[in-house]
Design brief:
- With 369 residues, the protein is mainly α.
- It has three domains: 134 residues, no CATH class; 92 residues, no CATH class; 108 residues.
- It contains 17 helices and no strands.
- Helix 4 packs across helix 5, helix 7 runs antiparallel to helix 8 and helix 13 packs parallel to helix 15.
- The radius of gyration is 22 Å and the shape is globular.
Length: 369
C-alpha cells in the first residue's frame, strides 16, 4: 500500500501544475480535495490494519480520482498512474460490479482497457483482463453471478473473520438470485446467512431486509427446498436473539433516495447535445407524446441522444437520486421502438440500472422483484 500511496502523492503534485491551464469539463474537482481524501483514507486504513472496509474506502477514493482525471485531464500522464492503481488495487480487493456500490463500472472498464493496451507488465495486463471480464459480464447475468460469488469467497479467505467480508459473501449470493432468478443462489444465501459465523447483528438494511422477508415466507409450498426452510428458521432465530425488533421493523427498506443524496446542478449539461436535467425530462415527455401518435422509430435518434446524456450524467453524478428514475423512464421509452439503435441504448441503460442501482424501485421493476 505504501508504494501505491507514493504514486498518489506524485499524482497530486502533478495536479497542482495542470489544474489552472486545462479546459473546463462538465465536472470540476479540486485536485487538492481528492488528494486529501486519498491521504485520509490511507491514514485510516493503516491505523485499522487494512481491514476489508478500509481497503474498500481507499479503493473508492482512487475511483473518484480516476473518474475526475478521465473527465478533466484524460491526456495528462498522471491518468496512466490512476488507471494502473485502479487495476492493481481493484484486483487485490477482488472488485466485482455486483457488490461494489461506487457507481464506477465505466471507469474500471476504461482503466482496465487502457492498461491492456499500454502496459508492458504481463501480470498487470492479466489483472486488467480479469477486471474486463467482470465489467463486461454485466449483460451475462449467470456469468456475473458466478464471478461475484467467487470474488466474495476470495475476499473472505483474504480477510478471515472480517465482518464486512463475510457480509459480502451473502450479499453476492442474494444479488445473484435477484439478477438471475436461479433459486440455487437464494438457497446459498440462506445457508450462509444461517451459519454461526455470519455476523447477523450487522445485517445491512438494503439487501438484508429482503433476505429477512424471504426467510419469513420460506416454505416448500412456495418453491423453497426443505433445506431452505430449515436455514430460514435458523437464520430468523439467530436474528431474533440479536434484536427481536429487527425481524419486523426492518422488513420495510430504507427509501432508495436516502442512499442517493448528491444532486446534479440544474445548470450542468450532459451528452453531445449538452442537455440539462430539465431538458432530458422534457425530451422524454415529447418523445413519448410523439410515440403516442405512432411516430415509432422516427424518434429513435433523439431517444438515443437522451440515453447518451443520462449515461454521461451517471459518470459525473453517480449518486444523483433521480438517476434510477431517469434511466427507467428512458429505458421504457426506448422499448417502445424496434430499431437496433433503440435496442442497444435500452440494453445499456438496463444493465447500469439493474447492476449498479439494484436496490432502486426502478431496478426491481426490471428484475421482476
Amino acid at each position: 500500500m505504501t508504494r501505491a500511496f507514493c504514486k498518489i502523492a506524485a499524482i497530486a503534485a502533478a495536479w497542482t501544475m495542470v489544474v489552472c491551464g486545462v479546459a473546463r469539463a462538465t465536472i470540476e474537482v479540486d485536485p487538492a480535495v481528492l488528494y486529501a481524501q486519498m491521504k485520509d483514507a490511507y491514514a485510516k486504513g493503516a491505523a485499522a490494519g487494512w481491514d476489508f472496509r478500509s481497503q474498500e474506502t481507499y479503493l473508492a477514493t482512487i475511483f473518484n480520482a480516476g473518474r475526475a482525471y478521465s473527465l478533466q485531464y484524460p491526456d495528462d500522464p498522471a491518468y496512466a498512474e490512476l488507471a494502473t492503481l485502479t487495476v492493481r488495487i481493484g484486483t487485490g480487493l477482488h472488485y466485482n460490479p455486483l457488490t461494489n456500490h461506487d457507481g464506477a463500472v465505466w471507469w474500471v472498464r476504461e482503466a482496465a482497457d487502457w492498461v491492456s493496451k499500454h502496459s508492458e507488465d504481463l501480470q498487470l495486463i492479466a489483472q486488467a483482463q480479469g477486471l474486463l471480464q467482470r465489467v463486461n459480464s454485466e449483460d451475462a447475468p449467470a456469468e456475473l453471478a458466478r464471478l461475484a460469488d467467487a470474488d466474495a469467497i476470495a475476499n473472505m479467505k483474504a480477510y478471515p473473520g472480517d465482518r464486512d467480508a463475510l457480509l459480502v459473501v451473502v450479499e453476492a449470493d442474494w444479488r445473484a438470485w435477484l439478477l438471475t432468478h436461479d433459486p440455487a443462489w437464494r438457497s446459498l444465501a440462506l445457508a450462509r446467512a444461517a451459519a454461526p459465523t455470519f455476523p447477523i447483528a450487522h445485517l445491512p438494511t438494503n439487501w438484508g431486509n429482503e433476505l429477512v422477508s424471504a426467510a419469513n415466507v420460506a416454505s416448500t409450498e412456495s418453491g423453497y427446498t426443505s433445506a431452505d426452510v430449515g436455514n430460514a428458521k435458523t437464520f430468523l432465530a439467530r436474528l431474533k436473539a440479536v434484536d427481536p425488533l429487527r425481524v419486523i421493523v426492518t422488513v420495510n427498506a430504507m427509501p432508495h433516495d436516502a442512499y442517493l443524496t448528491t444532486l446534479a446542478p440544474a445548470d450542468e449539461y450532459f451528452g453531445p447535445m449538452n442537455m440539462s436535467i430539465l431538458e432530458i425530462e422534457n425530451r422524454l415527455k415529447h418523445i413519448n407524446f410523439m410515440l403516442d401518435y405512432n411516430y415509432g422509430n422516427q424518434e429513435s435518434d433523439m431517444a438515443a441522444q437522451v440515453a447518451h446524456a443520462i449515461v454521461d450524467m451517471q459518470k459525473v453524478y453517480p449518486r444523483d437520486r433521480d438517476l434510477p428514475m431517469l434511466m427507467y423512464w428512458c429505458y421504457t421509452t426506448l422499448e417502445r421502438m424496434s430499431d437496433e439503435q433503440s435496442r442497444q441504448a435500452a440494453r445499456q441503460l438496463k444493465t447500469i440500472l439493474t447492476i449498479e442501482y439494484q436496490d432502486s424501485p426502478q431496478a426491481r421493476k426490471l428484475l421482476g422483484t
